[in-house]
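TICKET #2291
ISSUE: user wants both folds in one file
ATTACHMENT 1:
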Amino acid sequence: MRDLQRRLLDADFAPCPVSVGSTPTALAAPVAAGSDEIRPGNYALLDLTACRLGLCDADALALTVVTRVVAVNPYYAVIDAGSKMLSSDKGPHGTNASGFGIAVDEHGHHYEVQKLSEEHGFLTYGEHAPAVGALLRIFPNHSCAVVAQSDRFVLRQADGSAELHDIQGRGRFI
């Protein structure tokens, strides 16, 4: 990056900052020597992509989407969160992600979000189908997209208390 900046200056371009981005860059290595800034998008929340890349453990994930099971058939459990909430992003190439997130019920059973429509998700469930009406927590592949699609979030404290907050940047562009 510094070499590119030097070549731009040599070609009479105005000085500009050397900026690197992405959470994997921030977590995987020290900021490149000579960089002026780093802009990791979901560094504070993390997501399944960071886990799949080996950058964090599942215990480090700070964002989940709470959703309700609206139907169960022999093939899928259907939830009321689809691509408009979870994003259709499967993460970076090479992670072999096969779904759009992992759902967990109150008993600790895990379900893969296998397919999405805009409004609904379709979970594979094996031996333990979740009940219609059950609430599930979904760990999404891409937390940036989830926050960008939301108006509010609930901040849960270690003591179990919770606070509702508005997402300040929702709908704002620079």
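ATTACHMENT 2:
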Amino acid sequence: MKRLLSVILIILLSLSVLPTAGAKNEVSVTYVIKPSFDFGDVGDFHEGFAAVEKGGKWGFVDKRGKVIVPFIYDEVWDFHEGLAKVKKENKWGFIDKTGKVVVPLIFDDVFSFFEGLARVKKGNKWGVTDKTGNEIVPLIYEDVSDFYEGLVAVKKSGKWGVIDKAGKEVVPIVYDGIRFFSEDLLAVNKGGKWGFVDKTGKVVVPIVYDEIDYFLEGIAKVKKKGKWGFIDKTGKVVVPIIYDEIEYNFLEGIAKVKKGGKWGLVDKTGKEVVPLIYDEIGFISEGLAAVAKEGKWGFVDKTGKVVVPLTYDLVGSFCEGLADVKKGRKWGFVDKTGKIVVPIIYEAVAGFSNELAVVKKDGRYGVVDKTGKVVVPFLYDWIGDFYEGLALANKDGKKGYINKEGKVVVPLIYDWVASCFKDGLAIANRGGKWGFVDKTGKEVVPLIYESVREFSEGLAWVKKNGKWGIIANPLKTKNLPVKSK
């Protein structure tokens, strides 16, 4: 009896541990705070603090579970750049990590801090404040954007422009619309036409286009008089404005263009490297483009050469050197020479990832390698993508994880398992109870909780008997504030 009391005393004064029932090996969970809080809701830890709710009001606790910010706020957001936005009596402001109000709660709306500044609104006017509450940009604007390299777009009297952190106007407030910077140029609209200005406000692309897109790889698509083309950052037309449609910007140095109902590919000089003879063109992947003609699909390279014949009813895209192709109702894979490397016998396939592809046959899922060899037998109702060597699998309504060899590493006994591991652990549920499993299948946090949250900054919330507590990640307990309460 004396020994038992000593053990209990040690637990209460130092770490609180709880053995896991039913796990592969006996393990312990380390409590920072035992489930004792009657919080209504809890948030993840950010910058060392977690938002918590009690009686309809919000506050913050630190990693030891100590209430640092009292439950006086109607709404709070996570800490960002050392400050958290909070709401009380329909007004917003900011607090620091001691709970001190550093930006008074006088605003009707605020955004979190970015680059040391935050957008704030009072009435129907916007401005910008710093972390001490000083108004860097006065509240005289109808709208403001986030800062970008010291600049912010503002709207006043229905017009847009750009000012710096000192409030100096660098792009005159004369434009009807603005799309913020892409590759250091600002898209502006005036009188229904679009162009680009630089950071000094100088017009570098004339404001003559009906539509424009953002710059990518130094080129932007533009529309004029119903036709599309591309310009460079000096405003020079590099791809003639003659096309009926351009589906997206340049990718791998080429772009899809359509004219007269047919599709082809152009390079950045405007050369039609793939003639406009195709009914459809898919995305470019690994240097090849999927093309369709008269209902059949294949692949061409960037010179227009057909490398996979147009004999398939449907194709996907190349991934890890192979592309999924369909004939009739069956799928398989071809390489870049058009050779069939995985037979076209499957009801469904997913693209290759980490040298493996999930495939379906006779209503069951398995996995094949790049030679077509079945490495995971067709036993499963569903298999997810492999990530860090493991894939989520489902069989007869139960979930677990398998490895690349098909070995079950996390038993398929769970009603729900997270789709991936975070910090080495995955949330799992069985019979309405929650816990965590590791990549070996060990229940390192026993499934005894009514609710759990994902680990963040090494800690996770757990709920038992209606009370919330905090546990440490058993894989990363070093330097964490573990103790009892």
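RESOLUTION: both attachments delivered.
EXTRA DETAIL ON ATTACHMENT 2: Confidence is low (pLDDT under 50) at residues 1-26.
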